[in-house]
């Protein structure tokens, strides 16, 4: 079926206008936000501890490791994360940068929180198919404690991450 040129132009223009107006209505976040903000929003969180339930030798010294807090280099010690009300998670790399070319802050995740299940989901900005699920155990103004599964050497290991501000 051959469409007349004028009809084809009208259809293409209508499709373009529909796309423009649809894009204007897109939310500013990847997921809808909760009605009220959890305690962890708009605070600068630093890692206080990161432990594994089942120790595993991560540094090749033939000793099982359960405390992961000591593994990041010095350049990570002043890093922090901020959960913004718009759903973004910003990493603040502090004064000591591991890579001189890195920006001081950068959005790395989009978050959403389910109060009923206490699940905090983080969607990777660079790879949206990568979603982390954190079970929130403590959600206080000065302390955020989450439980998560991490995969190492093909096996899933339960871990606890404590953040303080």
Architecture overview:
This protein is 12% helix and 42% strand. It is mostly beta strands and 165 residues long. A hairpin with a 4-residue loop joins strand 5 (105-114) and strand 6 (119-124). It has one helix spanning 5-24; strands at residues 44-56, 65-67, 80-83, 88-92, 105-114, 119-124, 131-139, 143-152, 155-164.
- Quaternary structure state of the chains depicted: single chain
Distance between the termini: 66 Å
Q: Give the class from helix and strand content and strand pairing.
A: mainly beta
According to DSSP, the number of beta strands is 9
Classify the beta-strand content into a percent band. Answer: 35-45%
Average pLDDT across residues? 78
Give the number of helices: 1
Pick out the low-confidence regions: 1-32
H and E order: HEEEEEEEEE
Percent helix, as a range, is 10-25%
> Any idea what the radius of gyration is?
22 Å
As laid out across the biggest beta sheet, the strand order is 1-3-4-5-6-7-8-9
Summarize the biggest pleated sheet.
Answer: 8 strands, antiparallel, barrel
Principal-axes geometry comes out as globular
What brief labels describe this structure?
165 residues, disordered N terminus
Please outline the helices and strands:
Elements: H1 5-24, E1 44-56, E2 65-67, E3 80-83, E4 88-92, E5 105-114, E6 119-124, E7 131-139, E8 143-152, E9 155-164
Antiparallel strand pairs: 1-2, 1-3, 1-9, 3-4, 4-5, 5-6, 6-7, 7-8, 8-9
In short:
By secondary structure, this protein is mainly beta. Helices cover 12% and strands 42% of the residues.
């Amino acid at each position: 079926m051959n469409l007349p040129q004028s009809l084809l132009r009208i259809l293409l223009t209508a499709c373009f206008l529909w796309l423009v107006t649809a894009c204007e209505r897109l939310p500013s976040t990847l997921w809808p936000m909760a009605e009220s903000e959890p305690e962890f929003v708009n605070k600068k969180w630093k890692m206080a501890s990161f432990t594994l339930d089942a120790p595993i030798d991560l540094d090749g010294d033939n000793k099982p490791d359960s405390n992961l807090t000591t593994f990041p280099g010095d350049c990570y010690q002043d890093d922090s994360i901020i959960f913004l009300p718009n759903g973004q998670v910003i990493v603040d790399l502090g004064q000591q940068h591991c890579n001189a070319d890195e920006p001081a802050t950068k959005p790395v995740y989009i978050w959403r929180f389910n109060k009923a299940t206490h699940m905090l989901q983080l969607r990777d900005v660079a790879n949206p198919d990568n979603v982390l699920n954190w079970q929130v155990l403590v959600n206080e103004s000065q302390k955020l404690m989450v439980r998560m599964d991490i995969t190492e050497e093909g096996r899933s290991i339960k871990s606890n991450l404590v953040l303080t501000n």
